[in-house]
Write a structure and sequence with these properties.
alpha/beta, 11 helices, 42% helix
Amino acid sequence: MYVVDSHCDSIQQVAARNHPLVNPYNFSQKYKQLQMVAMFCSWPNETPKDCYKRATRYMGLFSVAMDNESDNIAKVKTYADVEKAFAENKHAALLAIEGGTGIMGDPQIFREFYNFGVRVFGLAWLHNDLAKSNRLEEGEEDTGLSDLGREIVTLGNELGMIFDVSHLSDKAFWDVIELAKKPVIATHSNFRDVCPHSRNLTKDMAKALIDKGGGVGLNFYPKFISENPDEHTIAGLFKHLDYCLENFGEDNIGFGGDIDGTSGRFPRDLDLTRSIHDQLIEFLQAHYSERIVEKVAGENYLNFLKKYL
C-alpha cells in the first residue's frame, strides 16, 4: 500500500523552524508516501512581489531539503519519477503552489514555476488579480476568474498544469471546471452538506469535479470537519468519506490533510507524536474494507496521477 497526501504545508516548517521536510508526524512510517508540497504564494498584507519572494524562498528551501534528505525522499515531476522513488524505497515530493498572487500577474513567472517542477496550481488563497477566493464579504460580488486568470488557465492547459480549486470562490470553481483541459482536484476540501463552510464543496461542485475525473483530498482541519465541536474527531472526519462513498463512489477520494497549515489544530484524538497518516489508516482498517482503505490511502490519487501528471 502507498500513501498520498494532496496538500501539506510542511515546507513552511522547514522555513520557520529549520525542520527537515520528512518528520515522524507528517509522513507515514509504515508505507512510502507521495506528498504534494504546497508552497504558499499568498499572504495577508503582502504585496505580489513579497509573495513572489516567499515562493522563490520556498523553492530554494525545497531544493536544499531534497539534497539533505536524498536518502529518504525524492523530488518528482512525472508519474515515472513517482514509480522510481517508490522502487528505491523513498518517499516522493511533488511541488504545488497555494495562491497564485506570487506570479505577479506574469505568465512568464507561471511558466518558470512550472519549469522548476510545480505541477499543481491553486489560483487564489485570498482574492487576487487571477480569481476570487472563498473569502467573500457579505454582499460582495463573486466575479470568479479574471481575464488574466483565464489566460493563466489556458497557459496551464498548454503546459500540462493540474489546477487546484480548494480555495476558490464558487464562481471561480465553475470557471476553472469549464476551462481546464485536465480534471481538476480539490486538494484539501471536504463536503458542504456535512459541514457548511465555504471552503468545502457543494454537492453539485463535487459531482462536477468527480464526473470529470478529478479528486478530493479530505481536509483534517476541525472547522472544515463539522460545526459541532464534539465531532472534531477522526470519526467526524470520515463522515465526509461516508458522504462521498454514498453519493459519488470510492474512486476519487483521498487524503488532503493541510498538515502544518492549520496552526496545529487537528481532530483531537490524533496523537501528533507519530504519523498522522498511519493513525488514519489504522482507523480506516478498523471500519472499512481493505479495498476502500487502499484507495483512500493513496491508490485513487496514484491512478489520477498516472493519467495526468
